[in-house]
């Protein structure tokens, strides 16, 4: 895969790697020599299984599996490779949560049995270190399986676990940093359009601009600062950059 991307001009060959060599050196295959040492051989020209790895000249999709979404809710990324085509556009009222547990409780109480855009905010790098939100996928998949149009919009992170559910993740700027996701209110109509690359709250512009930003509850902010080693990283959360800038704290 690295060789195909390099040959297609889609990666920088002169980037240093952990071995100290150029990225091109990572396109060779380690093999065991007769003496028991390691030898590096050129890779076969053809993929061993094109259902897994395709050449750059014949990609699975001409536009790739990720798309950028932009709009008055900020900028986000969505993985569309597994999302059914009839779910690439979702327009539905927002239901806002600030913890995974609250969303799961609402699902268990049958409060989400409808077309809905689930919004989970205050989950970015400044808020709580941007934890994995994989717990949200099963209930959203159940709702989608029941025929409802559902989507997730969050300033948090999912490590590829969204599956068939449309999920706009890493919304930047995050809510705690004053991002527009904090302007959203329950019941606002939200449109996620992975075809045009749009993420919009369908709210009157003047009203939208005049809205105060929602703030994180003090108890949640306190809880975010403790457990799982979070006490050690308070300084990093204060200085961390946005998710789209790498969520780094040393620049």
Task: Write structural notes for this entry.
This protein is of the alpha/beta class. It folds into two domains: 1-60, no CATH class; 66-239, Glucose Oxidase, domain 1 (3-Layer(bba) Sandwich), CATH 3.50.30.80. The chain is built from seven helices and ten strands. A hairpin with a 2-residue loop joins strand 3 and strand 4. The radius of gyration is 22 Å and the shape is globular. It starts with a helix and ends in a 12-residue tail after the last helix. The model has no long low-confidence stretch (mean pLDDT 91).
Lay out the secondary structure.
Blueprint: H1 2-7, E1 28-32, E2 38-42, E3 66-71, E4 74-79, E5 89-97, H2 100-108, E6 116-120, H3 125-128, H4 137-145, E7 150-154, E8 167-172, E9 189-193, E10 198-201, H5 205-210, H6 218-224, H7 234-239
Principal-axis shape equals globular
Low-confidence stretches: none
Number of distinct beta strands: 10
* Main beta-sheet annotation: 8 strands, mixed
Give me the CATH superfamily of the largest domain.
IlvD/EDD C-terminal domain-like
Q: Structural class given helices, strands, pairing?
A: alpha/beta
Strand content: 15-25%
- Measured between the Cα atoms of the first and last residue, the distance is 31 Å
Our Rg estimate from Cα atoms comes to: 22 Å
Task: Output the number of helix runs.
Answer: 7
CATH architecture of the largest domain: 3-Layer(bba) Sandwich
Instruction: Give the % helix.
Output: 10-25%
């Amino acid at each position: 895969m690295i060789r195909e991307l390099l040959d297609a001009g889609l990666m920088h060959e002169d980037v240093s790697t952990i071995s100290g060599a150029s990225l091109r050196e990572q396109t060779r295959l380690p093999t065991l020599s007769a003496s028991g040492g390691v030898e590096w051989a050129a890779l076969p020209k053809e993929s061993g299984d094109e259902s897994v790895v395709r050449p750059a000249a014949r990609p699975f999709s001409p536009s790739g599996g990720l798309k950028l979404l932009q709009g008055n809710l900020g900028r986000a990324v969505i993985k569309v490779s597994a999302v059914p085509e009839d779910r690439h556009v979702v327009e539905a009222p927002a239901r806002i949560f600030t913890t995974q547990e609250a969303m799961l409780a609402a699902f268990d109480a049958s409060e989400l049995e409808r077309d809905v855009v689930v919004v989970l905010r205050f989950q970015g790098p400044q808020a709580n270190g941007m934890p994995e939100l994989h717990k949200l996928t099963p209930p959203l998949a159940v709702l989608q399986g029941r025929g409802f149009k559902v989507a997730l919009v969050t300033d948090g992170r999912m490590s590829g676990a969204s599956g068939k559910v449309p999920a706009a993740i890493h919304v930047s700027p995050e809510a705690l940093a004053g991002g527009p996701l904090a302007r959203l209110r329950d019941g606002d109509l939200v449109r996620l359009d992975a075809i045009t690359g749009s993420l919009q709250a369908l709210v009157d512009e003047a009203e939208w601009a005049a809205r105060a930003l929602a703030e994180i509850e003090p108890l949640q902010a306190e809880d975010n600062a403790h457990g799982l080693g979070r006490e050690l990283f308070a300084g990093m959360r204060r200085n961390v950059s946005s998710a789209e800038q790498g969520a780094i704290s040393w620049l």
